[in-house]
Amino acid sequence: MKSEILWMIVGMGLVTYIPRMLPFVLFKGKELPSFLQGILKNVPYATLGALIFPGILFIQEDLWYGLFGAAAAFIAAFLGANVIIVVIGSITVLTVYSYFF
Amino acid sequence: MEEVVSVRSNSEFRKGIQAGLSIGIGYFPIALTFGLLAKTTGLTVTETVLMSIIVFAGASQYISLSLLTLGTGVFEIVLTTFIVNIRHFLMSASLNEKVEEEGTSLKMLYSFGITDETFSVAALKDGKVSTGFLFGVITVSYSSWVINSGLGHVIGASLPQTLQESMSVALYAMFIGLVVPSMKKSVKVVFLAVIAASFNTIFTMTEVLSTGWSIVASTLLSAIIVEVVQTLRGREGEQEHEK
Question: Which Pfam families match (chain A) (predicted)?
């Protein structure tokens, strides 16, 4: 193994791990102000919005492909399907879609 | 008594594995492609698997490959990785409010497994998140990531084109599957997701911010705006919500 690559991997590992780990150590047992707690409780839903858009539009060059996949997942989830069904369902829908277009 | 505790954490672990299954499926095509790309970039199978074992962060691993191809230096690659992954700080800080009491060493161990996907699954779970549950989610996701990276390098091919394409929707579908049930229950969640999505679209399309910073900025902006509006409107909104 090239030592340069090894150092790169170790470096990447460290700078990835530290931001993941720090909050668990820093904020341990300390009661944060309620306004800040409110913001942190909002973070998951906001993150999901940002993780979905605009990323899903660009999974293929065809913009409709992503939109179609998003719509399929949204409808399945809205009807109350389990997450795994939503995932498998939209993969299936897109596989069928690409046979026709 | 001890047995009762271990049985409980065992079933929590199993629940975590079940909840992490979508991530395992979603990582499959991405890790497979990563392995293949790593091979064409000139990384050995050991280096490829080692990177997945030590870094465990999809986007930045892909970026490191394209930077290597461009002949970028190690320092720049590590710096870019840091910038791309800084968003996990926000996710860990948020998740820290939701996990059950646990010793620091175990928290330091499972914090390694916080990715966009494991965070989303854990953070949107009802109620507190137990240590066993987190380890379950992370175990499935991590195994899928590491094993399939190696597999991609060894078999040196990816999935059939059509399947590869359709599977690229998997993780997004999972995110949608996670957030929609909460959107149905609360208008606040709709606002949070839509505002963050709009900011992120503006920031990335206008190329004002790189993807890593854009996610951090849009998430924070949305979370703060919604919190400020709710605070300004006072208890009025909250009471409504509780009905």
Answer: AzlD
What pLDDT sits at residue B1? 46
Give one DSSP letter per residue of A37-100, joined into a string.
HHHHHHHHHHHHHHHHTTGGGGSSSSHHHHHHHHHHHHHHHHTT--HHHHHHHHHHHHHHHHHH
Q: Which of A2, A24, A95 sits opposite B108 (nearest CB)?
A: A24
Which B residues 90-149 touch A at CB under 8 Å? 90-97, 104, 107-108, 111-112, 114, 116, 119-120, 123-124
Q: Do A38 and B230 touch (CB under 8 A)?
A: yes
Q: What's the pLDDT tens digit per position in A29-73?
A: 667 888 999 999 999 999 999 999 999 999 888 999 999 999 999
Of A24, A45, A98, the CB nearest to B179: A45
Q: How is chain A split into domains, by residue range?
A: 1-30, 31-100
Q: Contact at 8 Å (CB) between A46 and B192?
A: yes
Q: State the best of A3, A41, A48 to mutate against chain B, taking most chain B CBs within 10 Å.
A: A48
| Predicted-complex ipTM score | 0.93
CA distance A42 to B190: 11
Beta strands in chain B, from DSSP E residues, in sequence order = none
Residue B7 has pLDDT above 90, yes or no: no
pTM: 0.86
Phi-psi region of B23 (alpha: psi -120 to 50; beta: other; left: phi over 0): alpha
Give the bridge partners for B129, in sequence order: B99
